[in-house]
């Protein structure tokens, strides 16, 4: 991902060095397009942005091997929980643990967003914004992914609290579910625990994706900074050489 983006921008920068007028007009057009896209994004309701963000973090077929390694242990853990004599107690403790983890991940996501604001320069924003990637540009996709991850952790926190309250009520009043057969109880418990484990595991995977995106942005920003420094240094050297040659000719 980083290499492909870098190669594209290397070609763009070579073309810009060959034709300054073209690069100026292209930069101006990109800036106007960026303003138009931002205005369109700001006009969207928050619910639409949240939905777009959650779409960014949905499981993909590219990671099916990783999800396979998650599903199999989740099934084994769920089976052990179901046959245990203290299923509700163990599951409640696991929910408590996952609540703490989700709070930590949510804080890490906010920190990552603040870190991205600190490390990204205007030039990097313009470069990433010039790369179209679906309905949004590359930079907006990064922002929407962070938004989706943060709301996913909020969703898991609310879900965890709801499950904890429900399990606590059922544990305190076991006669509430006497009208349901034992087989249905076991199947329902298995599905609830299994799906909850998958949701928590998926949140952990998305934290790795968030870290990778921050690394990508930092790498691109470092690349553009080095290119700009190299260009500035080269121009200064040329000016110095011209000044020396001029002084020598005058002398």
From TrEMBL:
<feature type="transmembrane region" description="Helical">
    <location>
        <begin position="190"/>
        <end position="215"/>
    </location>
</feature>
<keyword id="KW-0472">Membrane</keyword>
<feature type="region of interest" description="Disordered">
    <location>
        <begin position="1"/>
        <end position="25"/>
    </location>
</feature>
<feature type="transmembrane region" description="Helical">
    <location>
        <begin position="64"/>
        <end position="83"/>
    </location>
</feature>
<feature type="compositionally biased region" description="Basic residues">
    <location>
        <begin position="1"/>
        <end position="14"/>
    </location>
</feature>
<feature type="transmembrane region" description="Helical">
    <location>
        <begin position="142"/>
        <end position="170"/>
    </location>
</feature>
<protein>
    <recommendedName>
        <fullName>Transmembrane protein</fullName>
    </recommendedName>
</protein>
<keyword id="KW-1133">Transmembrane helix</keyword>
<keyword id="KW-0812">Transmembrane</keyword>
<feature type="transmembrane region" description="Helical">
    <location>
        <begin position="103"/>
        <end position="121"/>
    </location>
</feature>
<feature type="compositionally biased region" description="Low complexity">
    <location>
        <begin position="16"/>
        <end position="25"/>
    </location>
</feature>
């Amino acid at each position: 991902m980083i290499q492909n983006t870098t190669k594209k921008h290397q070609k763009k920068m070579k073309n810009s060095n060959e034709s300054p007028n073209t690069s100026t007009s292209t930069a101006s057009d990109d800036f106007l397009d960026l303003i138009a896209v931002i205005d369109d994004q700001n006009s969207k309701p928050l619910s639409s942005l949240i939905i777009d963000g959650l779409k960014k973090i949905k499981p993909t077929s590219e990671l099916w091997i990783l999800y396979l390694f998650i599903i199999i242990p989740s099934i084994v853990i769920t089976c052990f929980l179901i046959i245990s004599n203290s299923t509700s107690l163990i599951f409640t403790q696991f929910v408590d643990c996952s609540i703490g983890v989700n709070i930590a991940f949510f804080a890490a996501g906010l920190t990552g967003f603040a870190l991205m604001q600190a490390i990204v320069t205007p030039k990097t924003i313009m470069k990433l914004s010039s790369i179209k990637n679906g309905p949004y540009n590359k930079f907006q996709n990064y922002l929407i992914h962070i938004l989706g991850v943060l709301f996913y952790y909020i969703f898991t926190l609310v879900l965890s609290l709801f499950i904890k309250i429900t399990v606590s009520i059922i544990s305190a009043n076991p006669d509430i579910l006497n009208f349901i057969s034992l087989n249905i109880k076991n199947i329902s418990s298995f599905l609830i625990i299994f799906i909850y484990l998958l949701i928590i595991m998926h949140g952990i995977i998305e934290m790795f994706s968030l870290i990778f995106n921050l690394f990508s942005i930092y790498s691109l920003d470092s690349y553009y900074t080095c290119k700009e420094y190299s260009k500035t240094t080269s121009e200064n050297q040329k000016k110095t050489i011209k000044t020396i040659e001029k002084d020598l000719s005058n002398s």
